[in-house]
């Protein structure tokens, strides 16, 4: 158990809908990262928040957005869903933000499996 | 083309055999991490290597970071069925902060 929790575990929804994925980081961690893992794309970095502020952005679509709340939990919002959005979505957390190339170890949650039909 | 190339993509061996997984890049990484992921679960951090030429051992697993910090390898001695999983390397680029770039993964199957 990494200490990172994600809900829900599974989500099935239709195209065009909007969903919210939730993540609680390990106690004491200030950074939260979101990743998408699909069969043909591997593990792709989406976005990072550190202590409530966006810190880094990866290949995140405009239909996707995220935020980190004062209690440090984070939510990933996916809207206008398409079939291709079906994937595993992982949240990870680390104690620091990683400035200057310092690689804080990231701990991953169990993931949310999203199926868009 | 991925920033981090892992090879082989798939490896099937018998219990007791040794195996090596490679992670290569043309970029210099400030650090590199190895993860193992089992189906339906999140990646689990195995090790972080930071210094060029560094070697770390974790029981039957040996991790090496290349001298130039562009490549890494994971060697498993006397593999067991419990070693089955997807092995991922992930590198941190100094210019990109702590944003990890993942390799495509090596799927390892250890047959009893």
Taken as a percent bin, the fraction of beta residues of chain A is over 45%
Specify Rg of chain A, calculated over alpha carbons: 13 Å
Oligomer: heterodimer
- What is the general shape of chain A? globular
Helix content of chain B: under 10%
Report on the structure:
The complex is a heterodimer of chains A (117) and B (112). With 117 residues, chain A is an all-beta fold. Helix content of chain A is 0%, strand content 51%. Chain A contains no helices and eleven strands. In chain A, strands 2, 4, 5, 6, 9, 10 and 11 form a seven-stranded mixed β-sheet that branches. A four-stranded antiparallel β-sheet of chain A has the order 1-3-8-7, with no helix packed on it. The mean pLDDT of chain A is 91. Chain B starts with a strand and ends with a strand. Chain B contains no helices and eleven strands. In chain B, strands 2, 4, 5, 9, 10 and 11 form a six-stranded mixed β-sheet that branches. Chain B has a five-stranded antiparallel β-sheet with strand order 1-3-8-7-6, with no helix packed on it. Chain B is mostly beta strands and 112 residues long. Classes of the chains: A mainly beta (117), B mainly beta (112). The A-B interface holds A 2, 4, 31, 33, 42-45, 48, 55-56, 58, 90, 92, 94, 96-111, 113 and B 2, 30-31, 33, 35, 40-45, 48, 50, 88, 92-105.
């Amino acid at each position: 158990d990494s200490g990172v929790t994600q809900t829900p575990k599974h989500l099935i929804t239709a195209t065009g809908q909007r969903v919210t994925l939730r993540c609680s980081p390990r106690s004491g961690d200030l950074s939260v990262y979101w990743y998408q893992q699909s069969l043909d794309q591997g593990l792709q970095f989406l976005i990072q928040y550190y202590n409530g502020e966006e810190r880094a952005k990866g290949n995140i679509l405009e239909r996707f957005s995220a935020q980190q709340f004062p209690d440090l939990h984070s939510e990933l919002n996916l809207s206008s869903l398409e079939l291709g959005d079906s994937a595993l979505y992982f949240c990870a957390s680390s104690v620091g933000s990683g400035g200057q190339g310092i690689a804080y170890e990231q701990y991953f949650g169990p993931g949310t499996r999203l199926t868009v039909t | 083309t991925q920033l981090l190339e892992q090879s082989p993509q798939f490896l099937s061996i018998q219990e007791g055999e040794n195996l090596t997984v490679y992670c290569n890049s043309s970029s210099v990484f400030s650090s590199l991490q190895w993860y193992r992921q089992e189906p339906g679960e999140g990646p689990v951090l195995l090790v972080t290597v930071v210094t060029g030429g560094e070697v770390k051992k974790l029981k039957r697993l040996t991790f090496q970071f290349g001298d130039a910090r562009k490549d890494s390898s994971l060697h498993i001695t006397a593999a067991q069925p419990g070693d089955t999983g997807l092995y991922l390397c992930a590198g941190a680029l100094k210019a990109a902060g702590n944003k990890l770039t993942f390799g495509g993964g090596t799927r390892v199957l250890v047959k009893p």
